[in-house]
Amino acid sequence: MEKLKNFLSLKNIEDTQIYKELKCAKNEALILRELCRNYVVSISSINAFTLLSTIFGNDKYLYLDALEDLKKLIERGFVNQNSSFFKSLENNKTQTLTLALLQSELSLSEYFLEFLEAKPRLNFEKQEAYADYLEYLKDEFVRIQLYERLSFIQKSAYNSEIKNQIKLYEKHIKERLKKSKFYNVLADIFKEYNLEHKE
Question: Cα-flanking dihedrals φ and ψ of residue 79, to 5°?
Answer without folding.
Answer: -125, 135
